[in-house]
């Protein structure tokens, strides 16, 4: 039995290496930077949406002012 017990930790280590290599290595090494990049992309897309909605609202307002009988 004493000869079997040293073998099991090495098998567990191999299993851990296999499971960690299944993840992309960059996720393991740089989780913070990836998280920050995702936040940056979300912020930029939110800003894009804001600017587009503002321009659409402005167009709609000018259209309603132009075509409404009693100019708002």
Automatic annotation (TrEMBL):
Residues 1-26 are annotated as: Disordered. This is 5176_t:CDS:1. It comes from Funneliformis geosporum. Residues 13-25 have a biased composition (Low complexity).
